[in-house]
Amino acid sequence: MAKPASTSFKVIAENRRARFEYEIEEEFDAGLVLTGTEVKALRTGKANIAESYATPESHGGNVEIWLINSNIPEYKQGNRENHEPKRNRKLLLHKREVNRLTGAVERKGYAIVPMRLFFNDRGIAKIKIGLGKGKKMHDKRETQKSRDWGRQKQRLLRENG
């Protein structure tokens, strides 16, 4: 029997540009391998995942998904046991999810985009990642041409009435 999806969670950090820059086709909830001071720093709510990304890497024959360039600032009361703010963090996913993500990234040109870092209803730090393709940006020269033509048309209508 499937467990009902929980809706109560506390958002720590959000990547607002993820849906703007990528067409997200599928979403996954993943756990994070964190140290004690990282969890305490997350509870202060000052983490940043806006410039981070996830990538599959092979370690000892196993493929793992790693979160790269996420920033969890140092915990102020952590003294010498503190963590490195921008270290790579391993994501915890089921094997079939890892295989699906790896296949999509390697064969189809998809990207694994971190979308939201949160604490679930049990107080465990999780990250929502999306599998998506980069959106095509509009050609700026075309919009420039149409804007210039619109101005010129208005000018001609004003002059010739």
UniProtKB/TrEMBL annotation:
One annotated GO biological process: trans-translation
Major localization class: cytoplasm
HAMAP family: SmpB
GO cellular component: a single term: cytosol
Known function: Required for rescue of stalled ribosomes mediated by trans-translation. Binds to transfer-messenger RNA (tmRNA), required for stable association of tmRNA with ribosomes. tmRNA and SmpB together mimic tRNA shape, replacing the anticodon stem-loop with SmpB. tmRNA is encoded by the ssrA gene; the 2 termini fold to resemble tRNA(Ala) and it encodes a 'tag peptide', a short internal open reading frame. During trans-translation Ala-aminoacylated tmRNA acts like a tRNA, entering the A-site of stalled ribosomes, displacing the stalled mRNA.
Subcellular location: Cytoplasm
Family in the record: Belongs to the SmpB family.
Protein name per its UniProtKB record: SsrA-binding protein
PANTHER family: SSRA-BINDING PROTEIN (PTHR30308:SF2), TMRNA-BINDING COMPONENT OF TRANS-TRANSLATION TAGGING COMPLEX (PTHR30308)
Taxonomic classification: Bacteria, Pseudomonadati, Pseudomonadota, Alphaproteobacteria, Parvularculales
Classification via NCBIfam families: PRK05422.1, smpB
Origin: domain of life: Bacteria
Alphabetical list of InterPro entries matching this protein: SmpB, SsrA-bd_prot, SsrA-bd_prot_CS
Region Disordered, annotated ranges: 131-161
Annotated organism of origin: Aquisalinus luteolus
Pfam families: SmpB
GO terms assigned for molecular function: RNA binding
Keyword set, alphabetical order: Cytoplasm, RNA-binding
Gene encoding the protein: smpB
Feature: compositional bias, Basic and acidic residues: 139-161
